[in-house]
């Protein structure tokens, strides 16, 4: 049996197992399985990988950055981003990759949206992957954080005035609004002083869809997109790495 997995603290929201099981079925791979493996911490990670003969695994909240010191190697993209969402196991060595950035870039380019600047909510692993993609598109961007520090971060209260009149992309790269906390939103758009018709909102959340943030933004005229296409693309790219396609 070829074993693959997703690790994270809580995985009740995840559709990754469903995606991989459908993929294995479509490829006729009855000797492959993909499990959800909740971990309260990353203690014992490598022992679990070796003991259960895991051949590759994905990484989600909140471990995309924390996992880096536990890996034997990072590919150049994961190293540049500073976050890992995919790990291959090669002769017992854990090698970190990032398929989130390429998946986000691919999905964003298919929207046809026009924007001149971007704001990325959150400063975690997914936010770093999004920023990497925006750098490739040469779109100026800032992170929005609850505890901003450095030149590239602002606080939520500053966002409305920072936006100005430019066509703008906002990316939600926080877990706020994700199942089961579906009534939460990272951004109170009622306090916004700007017209949202020239806005695009990409919420990396896919469960639920729409999120409260997407509903609020759409009702104010923004174009909105959820994270499902990105999820599928990053899983496809992960499978290419797992299977050495
Ligand atoms: P993470 O490393 O835990 O980081 C999330 C960031 O969100 C934190 O750095 C924090 O930034 C901010 N945050 C956390 N809790 C918050 C709260 N209560 N209020 C406001 N901000 C909060 O998580 P991640 O791995 O980056 O993932 C973030 C989200 O993206 C998750 O929902 C994940 O499922 C989703 N995601 C989706 C895909 C996809 O394929 N669709 C891929 C990757 C990730 P500050 O402390 O700076 O505020």
- Shape descriptor: globular
- Domain module tally: 2
The name of the CATH topology of the largest domain is Rossmann fold
Query: Could you tell me the number of beta strands?
Result: 12
Q: Describe the largest sheet.
A: 6 strands, mixed
Superfamily (CATH H level) name of the largest domain = NAD(P)-binding Rossmann-like Domain
CATH-defined architecture of the largest domain: 3-Layer(aba) Sandwich
Low-confidence stretches: none
- Order of the strands making up the biggest sheet: 2-1-3-5-6-4
Give the CA-CA distance, first to last residue.
18 Å
Helices, by number, come to 8
The CATH class assignment of the largest domain is Alpha Beta
Estimate the helix proportion, in percent: 25-40%
Query: Which distinct ligands sit in these coordinates?
Result: NADP nicotinamide-adenine-dinucleotide phosphate
Rg, rounded, reads 18 Å
Describe the structure.
- The protein has 245 residues and is an alpha/beta fold.
- It has two domains: 2-99, 3-Layer(aba) Sandwich (Rossmann fold); 102-229, 3-Layer(aba) Sandwich (Rossmann fold).
- Helices cover 32% and strands 24% of the residues.
- It has helices at residues 16-27, 45-51, 76-81, 100-109, 125-136, 156-163, 212-219, 228-242; strands spanning 2-8, 32-38, 54-59, 73-74, 86-90, 93-97, 117-121, 141-145, 153-155, 168-172, 199-203, 223-225.
- The strands form two sheets. A six-stranded mixed sheet has the order 2-1-3-5-6-4, with helices on both faces. A six-stranded parallel sheet has the order 9-8-7-10-11-12, with helices on both faces.
- The longest helix has 15 residues, at 228-242.
- It starts with a strand and ends with a helix.
- The mean pLDDT is 95.
- The structure holds NADP nicotinamide-adenine-dinucleotide phosphate.
- The site of NADP nicotinamide-adenine-dinucleotide phosphate has 27 residues, from helix 5 and helix 8.
């Amino acid at each position: 049996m070829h074993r693959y997995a997703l690790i994270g603290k809580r995985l009740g929201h995840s559709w990754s197992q469903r995606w991989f099981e459908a993929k294995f079925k479509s490829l006729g791979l009855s000797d492959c399985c993909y499990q959800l493996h909740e971990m309260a911490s990353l203690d014992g990670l490598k022992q679990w990988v070796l003991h259960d003969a895991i051949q590759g695994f994905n990484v989600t909240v909140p471990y995309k950055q924390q996992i880096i010191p536990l890996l034997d190697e990072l590919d150049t993209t994961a190293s540049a981003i500073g976050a890992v969402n995919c790990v291959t196991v090669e002769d017992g060595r854990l090698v970190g990759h990032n398929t989130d950035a390429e998946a986000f870039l691919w999905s964003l380019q298919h929207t046809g949206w026009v924007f001149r600047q971007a704001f990325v909510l959150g400063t975690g692993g997914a936010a770093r992957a999004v920023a990497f993609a925006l750098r490739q598109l040469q779109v100026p961007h800032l992170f929005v954080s609850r505890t901003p520090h450095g030149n590239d971060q602002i606080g939520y209260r500053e966002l409305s005035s920072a936006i100005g009149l430019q066509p703008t992309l906002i990316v939600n790269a926080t877990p706020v609004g994700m199942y089961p906390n579906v009534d939460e939103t990272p951004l109170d758009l009622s306090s916004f002083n700007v017209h949202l018709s020239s806005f695009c909102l990409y919420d990396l959340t896919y469960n639920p869809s729409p999120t409260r943030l997407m509903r609020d933004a759409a009702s104010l005229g923004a174009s909105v997109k959820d994270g499902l296409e990105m999820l599928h693309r990053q899983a496809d790219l992960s499978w290419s790495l797992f299977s050495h396609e």
